[in-house]
C-alpha cells in the first residue's frame, strides 16, 4: 500500500509518516521519499521534517506540560542469594 501523504500542521508541507529503525514514528518530507511504499525512514536519502520545518521548535517543545506525577520506578526485588547446599 502506498504511503499516505499528510500535511504538516505548521507549514502545510507534504509529509509522510514513516518509522525509524527503532519503530518510532517520524515525519519525513514527502518529496524526499522516492519509494511510495517505503516504510522505514532512511537517513541517507530522506529528510526528516523536523529538520526542515519552519516551525520545528513546536515539535520539540511540548505545548503544555503535563503535571502527571512522575512515575516512581520501583526498584527490582533484591535477588535472593542462591544458597549453596553443602553436599
Ligand atoms: Zn512543518
Report on the structure:
The protein is of the alpha+beta class and 87 residues long. The protein has a domain at 5-60. It has 2 helices and 3 strands, in the order E-E-E-H-H. It has helices spanning 49-52, 56-60; strands at 5-7, 14-19, 25-29. The protein has a 3-stranded antiparallel sheet. Strand 2 and strand 3 (25-29) form a beta hairpin. The longest helix is centred in the middle third of the chain and has 5 residues, at 56-60. Bound molecules: zinc ion. Zinc ion (ZN) is lined by residues 8, 10-11, 13, 49, 53, 55.
Helix content: 10-25%
Give the helix/strand class.
alpha+beta
Q: Unreliable stretches, pLDDT < 50, 5 or more residues?
A: none
Instruction: Summarize the helix and strand pattern as letters.
Output: EEEHH
The helix count comes to 2
Q: How many strand units?
A: 3
Percentage of residues in strands: 15-25%
Bound molecules: zinc ion
What characterizes the major β-sheet? Answer: 3 strands, antiparallel
| Mean pLDDT over the full residue set | 84
Give a quick summary of the entry.
This protein has 87 residues and is α+β, with helices and mostly antiparallel strands. Helix content is 10%, strand content 16%. It has helices at 49-52, 56-60; strands at residues 5-7, 14-19, 25-29.
How does the SSE layout of this entry go?
Blueprint lengths: L4 E3 L6 E6 L5 E5 L19 H4 L3 H5 L27
Antiparallel strand pairs: 1-2, 2-3
The chain binds zinc ion (ZN).
The site of zinc ion has 7 residues, from loops.
